[in-house]
Design brief:
The chain has 6 helices and no strands. With about 150 residues, it is mainly alpha-helical. The protein starts with a helix and ends with a helix.
Length: about 150
C-alpha cells in the first residue's frame, strides 16, 4: 500500500468514526458503552479464531470476512434502535443502554465460551442476544400498534 492509499484509508475511517460519534450524541447513547461494546466484539472475534484453531476448524478468508462484516453490522443495532425511538418521539436512552448492556454481556459470554473451548475443546451452548432484542422490539411494536 502506498502512502497515499494509507492516507485515504485513514480519512475514511476517521470520517466514519466522526459520523458514528455524532449519531451517538444525537441519540443520547453513551459513547463509553459503545466503545466497550466495540472492544468486546474484537475480543470475541479473536477468541473465536483461537477456538477454531484449537478445535481444528478450518476457516477460509471468506468466512473471516463474513465474521468481520457480521461484527461490524452488529454495531449498527443500537443506532437502529435509537433511530427507531426517535422516529416515534420516544426517549429510548434507557432502553438503548439496556440493549447495549445485553449485547455487551452476550459478547462477554461468547468470549468466555471461546476461551472455555480453547482450554477444554468443548463448546458451551450459544446465546443469541440479537434474537432476544428482536423479540422484545417486536412485542413493543405490537403493543404500540394496539394502542392506536
Amino acid at each position: 500500500m502506498s502512502n497515499d492509499e494509507i492516507f485515504q484509508v485513514k480519512v475514511i475511517v476517521l470520517t466514519f468514526a466522526t459520523y458514528i460519534a455524532m449519531l451517538l450524541h444525537y441519540l443520547g447513547l453513551s459513547t463509553e458503552i459503545f466503545v466497550i461494546y466495540a472492544f468486546l466484539l474484537v475480543v470475541d472475534y479473536l477468541t473465536g479464531i483461537g477456538r477454531a484453531y484449537k478445535l481444528d476448524i478450518k476457516i477460509t478468508s471468506k468466512e473471516m470476512w463474513a465474521g468481520i462484516i457480521s461484527k461490524l453490522s452488529s454495531l449498527f443495532v443500537p443506532i437502529l434502535l435509537g433511530m427507531g425511538f426517535k422516529t416515534v418521539g420516544a426517549d429510548g436512552v434507557k432502553a438503548l443502554e439496556v440493549g447495549m448492556i445485553i449485547l455487551s454481556l452476550s459478547e462477554v459470554y461468547s468470549s468466555i465460551s471461546n476461551i472455555h473451548a480453547i482450554k477444554t475443546t468443548k463448546d458451551l451452548p450459544e446465546f443469541d442476544a440479537l434474537a432476544s432484542i428482536a423479540r422484545w422490539l417486536k412485542a413493543k411494536i405490537l403493543s404500540y400498534e394496539e394502542k392506536k
